[in-house]
Write a structure and sequence with these properties.
- It is a single chain.
- The chain is α+β, with helices and mostly antiparallel strands.
- The protein is built from 9 helices and 15 strands.
- The chain has a 5-stranded antiparallel beta sheet with strand order 5-4-8-7-6, with helices on both faces. It has a 5-stranded mixed beta sheet with strand order 10-12-13-15-14, covered by helices on one side.
- The longest helix has 74 residues.
Length: 408
């Protein structure tokens, strides 16, 4: 179970991490793309035209090229840009500082000379680390963009993203642990119930087997003693009943075969089941009261519904006091509601849900004497679930009522 929980934790954590990494990666990639496009615009906005003069054209986004006579006064608001006009031998003929940031012309010319050694064309480099981007057109001009602002902005964003990512990952560890526990809990509960079921079934089978084996040994030693045969028969009947109940439970928990479902008159099925138990009730001195609405139709497995009624009626009779009444009602309102009520021994407080668990018995010694193993109501619950119905129990004022609600 620990291995399953660990696998679920790793899967959930991995999924959340991949999603977070993708989000942060896309966000930073978009910011980088925006900065790169801005640098490219700055590099491509100027070009020299004519020979021997200093007339320039500036290409603004979504506009036709316009001639600028006073190009030296053009400012680039979002970054620092230098333009160096070159003569025929690629030496600086004119230096234009579009930022007016106090950098001397000689320093700009020296920078341009160093950059030109890297080759002509457009060079942007990594905006995380590269200080300058430039566009170099030999014997014409070189435009230089200072990447300091972009460097700082992108590195700061990346650093904040890493810090936030780490914090989110710490949160994801807690979230993944919580989800792993919640997701694995039903499996863990089922595993525990399965182990308990095997232990209970083994215990129930072990007792009659022990009696049978002991009686067989005694019979072998005293062939004339009839009581040993009676013991063997009694315990064999108990084992047969237990095995039959276990098989019914296994069938009810198996994947339901919807091919056995068909439209049926639920009213007649319930009425028939009640009539079957009239003799049993008469022998115990229990009265019967029924209120069954006629003509209620529902798509059901008729055999399973008969089995459900048999379990509920048998349970009601077994726990009714002599002279008391067992009441059965079937009504169709918003949904179809079936109730079976008996007067007598009630369900202990807080045990209303537990009675539907396998091998649950409120009075262990009494039920063992009656060959009752606490499987009937577990079977009834599975039958209800296969019919998209809910079953519940409630004891109040000396009356115990089992309610089955069939959802329409």
């Amino acid at each position: 179970m620990k291995k399953l929980k660990k696998q679920i934790f790793l899967l959930v954590f991995l999924i959340l991490t991949v999603i977070t990494t993708t989000v942060f990666g896309v966000y930073n990639a978009q910011l980088y793309s925006q900065q790169k496009k801005a640098v490219e615009r700055s590099l491509n906005q100027t070009m020299r035209v004519g020979v021997g003069g200093f007339d320039f054209m500036i290409n603004m986004p979504d506009e036709q090229p316009r001639k600028i006579d006073d190009f030296g006064n053009i400012m680039f608001m979002d970054r620092t840009v230098y333009t160096v006009v070159l003569d025929s031998d690629n030496s600086a003929a004119s230096v234009i500082n579009h930022a007016n940031n106090g950098v001397s012309d000689s320093d700009i010319a020296e920078l341009a000379s160093k950059l030109m050694q890297r080759g002509s064309g457009v060079h942007i480099g990594s905006l995380y680390f590269s200080r300058y981007s430039y566009k170099y057109d030999p014997q014409s001009l070189i435009t230089i963009v200072d990447n300091s602002t972009a460097n700082e902005y992108l590195r700061q964003t990346a650093w904040y993203s890493i810090i936030l990512f780490v914090l989110i990952e710490m949160l994801f560890v807690m979230v993944a642990k919580t989800l792993a526990s919640k997701i694995s809990k039903p499996v863990e509960d089922s595993f525990i119930k399965q182990k308990q079921f095997i232990a209970d079934a083994s215990h129930e089978l072990k007792t009659p087997l022990a009696v049978i084996m002991a009686s067989s040994d005694a019979l072998e030693a005293n062939p004339s003693e009839r009581k040993w045969l009676d013991n063997i028969k009694t315990e064999s009947d108990r084992m047969n009943k237990l095995i039959a109940d276990l098989l019914d439970l296994a069938k009810s928990e198996a994947v339901d075969d919807k091919s056995q479902f068909a439209p049926a008159n639920l009213s007649k099925i319930v009425e028939k089941s009640v009539l079957t138990f009239e003799g049993v009730m008469f022998e115990k001195g229990v009265l019967l009261s029924d209120d069954i609405q006629e003509g209620i139709e529902l798509n059901v497995n008729e055999f399973k519904i008969q089995q459900l009624m048999s379990i509920l009626l048998d349970n009601a009779v077994k726990h009714s006091e002599t002279g008391k009444t067992v009441s059965v009602t079937l009504k169709k309102e918003k949904n179809i509601v079936l109730t079976v009520t008996n007067e007598g021994e009630g369900i202990p407080k807080g045990e209303e849900e537990k009675i539907f668990e396998r091998f649950y018995r409120a009075d262990d010694s009494r039920n063992r004497a009656d060959n009752r193993y606490g499987l009937g109501l577990a079977i009834a619950k599975n039958i209800c679930q296969s019919h998209n119905a809910q079953i519940s129990a409630k004891s109040e004022n000396g009356k115990t009522t089992f309610t089955v609600i069939f959802n329409i």
